[in-house]
Structure formats: structure tokens, C-alpha cells
UniProtKB/TrEMBL annotation:
Pfam families cross-referenced by the UniProt entry: NAD_binding_8
TM region positions: none
Protein name: Uncharacterized protein
Organism: Cristinia sonorae
Stated family: Belongs to the FAD-binding monooxygenase family.
Amino acid sequence: MAAGKRTQTGGPRVVIIGAGIGGLMTGISLKKQLGFSDFSIYEKGNDLGGTWHTDIRS
Ligand SMILES: Cc1cc2nc3c(=O)[nH]c(=O)nc-3n(C[C@H](O)[C@H](O)[C@H](O)COP(=O)(O)OP(=O)(O)OC[C@H]3O[C@@H](n4cnc5c(N)ncnc54)[C@H](O)[C@@H]3O)c2cc1C
């Protein structure tokens, strides 16, 4: 996860790389624990879940 530039509203811009369990839980925690929803999650695969998703299908 990288945090740096500020958005137009003045808050930090957060980018989460990877929608595995780590990335998804980071997004959920940002929202639920901090009330922060100004973030993006980028996933290079076709679906969410990372290793767990890949493993279930194989
Ligand atoms: C065979 C196997 C069995 C396991 N069994 C268990 C178990 O029983 N219990 C348990 O607790 N843990 C288990 N684990 C471990 C568990 O799967 C990992 O700890 C967990 O998936 C890590 O989550 P993560 O989100 O950090 O990484 P990942 O699940 O690997 O997710 C990373 C995501 O980031 C994406 N990504 C990577 N690079 C980029 C990029 N440059 N740009 C965009 N997206 C990117 C990937 O496509 C992926 O979707 C197992 C692992 C394996 C391999």
C-alpha cells in the first residue's frame, strides 16, 4: 500500500496494490475503523481473493 499525494478534499490518497485477503482487509479496515473511503484497490488478476481464490479453483 502506498500513501502520499493529497486529494482535492485535502485527505491522503491511498492506493492498495492487490485484492488478495491482505488488500481486501486493508480496504475494509480503512472504511470500518477509520471511516476512510478515499482509496483504490488495483488487482492484476481477473478476480478478487488472491492466493485463496486461485487455490480454490485449482
Ligand atoms: C497452497 C497454499 C495454502 C495456503 N493455506 C493457507 C491456510 O490454510 N490458512 C491460511 O491462513 N493461509 C494459507 N495460505 C497463505 C495465504 O494464502 C496467504 O497468507 C494469503 O493469501 C496472503 O494474502 P495477501 O493478500 O498478502 O497475498 P495474495 O493472496 O497473494 O494476494 C496478492 C494479490 O495481489 C495481486 N498483485 C500482485 N502484484 C500486483 C500488481 N503489481 N498489481 C496489481 N495486483 C497485484 C495478485 O494478483 C493477488 O491477487 C496458503 C498459501 C498457499 C500458497
